Amino acid sequence: MRRPMRTWVYLFGINALVVCVGFLLLIAVSLSVLEHAIELQTLRNLRTFSHSVRELITARPPRAAAGETLDSFIKLLASHDPYFRITLIAADGTVLGESDTNRLNLENHFTRPEVKAALLGQEGYDFRRSSIDGRMVVYYAVPLTLSDSYAALRLSMPLASNVLFSTNLRQQSVIAAILILCVILTLSFAAAQRISKPLAELRNAAFRYRTGEFTYRPKIESPYEFAELAADLNRMALTIQDNIEDISYRRDYFESVFAHTAEALIVFTRGLQILEVNRAACRLFDTGARKADRSLISLVRSTEIIDFVQAHIADPAEEHGAELEITIQGADGAEHHLLARCSAITPENERRHFLLMLTDVTRLTQLEQIRKDFVANVSHELKTPVTSIKGFIETLLDGALSDEETARRFLTITDEQTARLSNIIDDLLSLSQLEQRGAAIRTQRVSVRAVFAQIMRLCLPEAQAKQTELSLSFLSARGAPLDGDIELYLNEGLFIQAAANIIGNAVKYCPSGARVDIGVQQTPPHGIMLRVEDNGPGIPAEYRTRIFERFFRVDKGRSRETGGTGLGLSIVRHIAELHGGSVQALARRDGSAGACFELYIPGNRMEPDAR
After folding, report:
1. What's the pLDDT tens digit per position in 495-526?
2. Cβ-count burial of 520 within 10 angstroms (0-12 exposed, 13-18 middle, 19+ buried)?
């Protein structure tokens, strides 16, 4: 590929060519005009001289033979200038007198143009090369009368005898012109360089803008047009920089929103080729690439979603897209209830793009189911005591009041059912308050031994009534017996409620004569683990995660017989979470029959709440 010419070379070359051609033409025309002027001047001089010589010849009387006297006289007149030649020609063309050579050796001059004109009574001239020496000569002839006969007096002078041609004036003029041309070319070169320098600065600015450096500003003060162009470039760069910053901000904003949106978002083409996926979609479908270079079919692996998307692509009837509720199995193996929405995000053409939004409504579905179960369970739990109370009251009103023993027994049962109803309402209120608190609980520094002394006082009467043995031990982080005390920050009332609930359940659901082991162990750095183990019937493995749900009962009939509300462990779970801890149901560590509950309160949350 031919390399393009630089601007300064182009400018200098064109300018130099024009100047050189102009100078050559100027020199040629000037020399031509000068030569023509010299020829005219020579003609005028010869005309003047011819008239003067004619007067001299006609006024001089002859002394001897006519030919000899005129020839000598003519040689005398021309003797002072070797380039000046005088010739006298008779009417028949014979040379009567010649200043430069012997007239007898000259041929007849009748055919010469200037001679012919002079013999006809007119003045004539001609430019031609001399037959003697071959030089270019100017001839001028005038008519002359000698002894009543016509003759012609001709004067001639070589052009080379002129000052312009006889000296080195022409060479000096050419040399001077060449020197002037060199000076002009030097100035032209400097001007080309000066013109190309702003262009180089503009090119540098364009290169910087191409590489993204829009803070660069070309500084050009002249010429005016380049300065205006530089100012326009500066304004253009500022505008582009502002636009890029705005676009970058919008892009970053969009990418941030796109990446952190909770819904799974997938952008794909009409051919189901994926362009973008966000983090939620990556987690849902277990793909680590933000830009999955694969098809939508291989990503979602759901025929329902693909059919739904293809139907919308084929017939986008809904302006804002279509919706579909489906259930799929996620990458984590669990079922996910999804609300799928598909809509076009670019205008209608072959490269149209679509957005698939998958909202995971599993939690909402579960909460809705929990709400339904809660309403059903509350209705069921409240219906039993209310029905019992209503039935006994109706029986008493129908006449059982007259039988004191029957009335007392009915009133005792009514009182028990009322107490149970009150317990259910109290637990519901406690659970509601715990859920509304969030993480806002008051904590204080307490002695763990002192707290468990209160807990044991609360649980001991029921344990003694059932002849259940309660064993309390304090252990270090390594499992060795702890002699000292443990101090940490917690909400004393809530913790006592949770611990007493776990210990009370162990006593309540174990048969008489059972044993309940209560262990309090330090956990690094400053937490505690409450472990309650009993040798009762235990909890089946499939129910160990569900017993913390509201109103969930392993043995519904037996639980109601013991007076449980079905909300106690749910309250324990909420109290543990408010302290940043956890609670779980396990099998006994030694593998024997019975249940084991662990309530963990971490030390990293044990800071006092100033509120």
Report:
1. 888 898 899 888 988 888 899 999 999 888 77
2. buried
Residue 548's pLDDT is 80
Q: Half-sphere exposure of 154 toward its Cβ, with a 13 Å CA cutoff?
A: 33
- DSSP 8-state secondary structure symbol assigned to residue 273: B
CA 61 – CA 70 distance, rounded (Å): 10
Cβ-count burial 569-601 (b if 16+ within 10 Å, e if not): bbbbbbbbebbebebebebeeeeeebbbbbbbb
What b/e readout covers 342-352, taking b as 16+ CB neighbours within 10 angstroms? bbbeeeeeeee
* Tens-place pLDDT, residues 194-233: 777 777 777 788 877 777 777 777 777 777 777 777 788 7
Which DSSP letter does residue 80 get? T
- The C-alpha atoms of residue 273 and residue 313 are separated, in whole angstroms, by 13
Question: Nearest CA to 559 among 522, 501, 509, 497?
Answer: 509
Can you tell me the distance from the alpha carbon of 436 to that of 567, in angstroms, rounded to the nearest whole number? 16
- Phi/psi for 184 (5° steps) reads -65, -40
Q: How far apart are CA 124 and CA 118, in angstroms?
A: 6
Which class for 199: exposed (0-12), middle (13-18), buried (19 or more C-beta within 10 A)? middle
CA angle centred on 444, ends 438 and 447, rounded to 5°: 125
Burial of 523 (0-12, 13-18, 19+ CB in 10 A): middle
Question: What does the block give as tokens for 38?
Answer: 């010299």
The residue among 54, 81, 82, 83 whose CA lies nearest residue 70 is 54
Kindly state the tokens that stand for 261. 């949106």
- The torsion angles phi and psi of 159, rounded to 5 degrees, stand at -65, -25
Q: What is the pLDDT of residues 525-543, one digit of tens each?
A: 778 999 999 988 888 888 8
CA separation for the pair 298, 374 (Å, rounded): 40
The 3-state secondary structure of 284-299, one letter per residue: HHCCCCCCCCCEHHHH
Distance of alpha carbon 603 from alpha carbon 417, whole angstroms:
41
In whole angstroms, give the CA distance from residue 603 to residue 448: 13
Higher-confidence residue of 394 and 273: namely 273
How far is the C-alpha of 569 from the C-alpha of 504, rounded, in Å? 11
Q: What are phi and psi of 549, to 5 degrees?
A: -80, 155
Q: What is the pTM of this model?
A: 0.44
